[in-house]
Specification:
With about 300 residues, this protein is α/β, with parallel strands linked by helices. The protein is built from 13 helices and 9 strands. The structure holds iron/sulfur cluster. This is TIGR01212 family radical SAM protein.
């Protein structure tokens, strides 16, 4: 796809370093979330699906089985194990070691991506991830920040502020770990310029990867109720394309773009409708980058 000629995507980055395609395989390791049980907060982020917490959250399969089951049909021979569901550092370090090592000892797994919150990465956990990196594994710490504005973080009940992100990134970088920061475009109360300010703050602090995501309003979330009552609105496709393209153009080429949009399936997805199809929005972002310049292009102009 044309988009990938104009961004430094994760696939390109991995292929250049491994010499072949490396794919991410998603794991549900039955973690929960400290923003639900009172450790960081209660009720969870307002965009998060409450229903998913009322039933058993984990997979019935072991980590090894989940990874092996995901491989068929993939056009790759090597893989990263992506601990994606909920807060994947929310356990004692010895339990984390057991889970991560089950993944790393599965055939053809060359590394880990660990999705978590900035306030849930104690030093011992970072030390463990750094240990795997020193052993030669590919390691990405994926931090959900969403916004750098404390006012927004309070509004969406994240249970942490920007200073928690600064602290997590500082300690991770002291250990040489790579950070992929997750940002949501279209959060309530935010203007497009707020997303660009958040990007500036994140880039100033330093990060190695970015994941951009439109706000999804999903069934079972607190936002679903707000949306039904007309208190919040979903972002329009054209607005998302505009902000995402500008963010990509302001991101230096050496920052790896793990994702520039995201989809969700109906009926879980309530709004925006366009988020149930990944290609139109990616094509529009690509057209913008072709016409105006790709990743990092606005940094070249003075
Ligand atoms: S989005 Fe993540 S941090 Fe927020 S409530 Fe859901 S699982 Fe917890």
């Amino acid at each position: 796809m044309q988009l990938y000629e104009h961004i430094n995507g994760l696939g390109r980055d991995l292929k250049s370093r491994f010499g072949e395609k490396v794919h991410k395989l998603t794991i549900n390791a039955s973690f929960t979330c400290p923003n639900r049980d009172g450790t960081s907060g209660l009720g969870g982020c307002t965009f998060c699906n409450n229903a998913s917490f009322s039933s058993k959250t984990g997979s019935q399969l072991s980590i090894r089985e989940q990874l092996e089951n995901s491989k068929p049909g993939m056009r790759a021979k090597r893989y990263l194990a992506y601990f994606q569901t909920y807060t994947n550092t929310y356990a004692e370090v010895e339990e984390l070691r057991r889970l991560y090592e089950e993944a790393l000892t599965t055939t053809d797994i060359v590394g880990l991506c660990v999705g978590t919150r900035p306030d849930c990465v104690p030093d011992a956990t970072l030390d463990l991830l750094a240990e795997y990196q020193q052993q030669g594994y590919e390691v990405w710490l994926e931090l959900g920040l969403q916004s750098s504005f404390d006012k927004t973080l309070d509004l969406i009940n994240r249970g942490h502020h920007f200073d928690a992100y600064v602290d997590a990134v500082t300690r991770a970088h002291q250990r040489g770990l790579k950070i992929c920061t997750h940002l949501i475009i279209g959060l309530p109360g935010e203007e497009p310029t707020d997303s660009l300010i958040t990007l500036d703050r994140v880039l100033d602090l330093g990060c190695e990867g970015l994941k951009l995501h439109p706000l999804h309003i999903v069934r079972g979330s607190q936002m679903a109720r707000q949306w039904k009552h007309g208190e919040i609105q979903a972002i329009a496709q054209q607005d998302y394309v505009d902000v995402a393209a500008r963010m990509i153009q302001q991101t230096p080429w050496d920052v790896v773009m793990h994702r520039v949009s995201a989809t969700a399936r109906k009926p879980t997805l309530l709004a925006p409708d366009w988020c149930d199809d990944r290609w139109p929005v990616l094509n529009q972002i690509a057209q913008r980058l072709v016409a105006e310049g790709g990743q990092g292009s606005s940094l070249l102009r003075c």
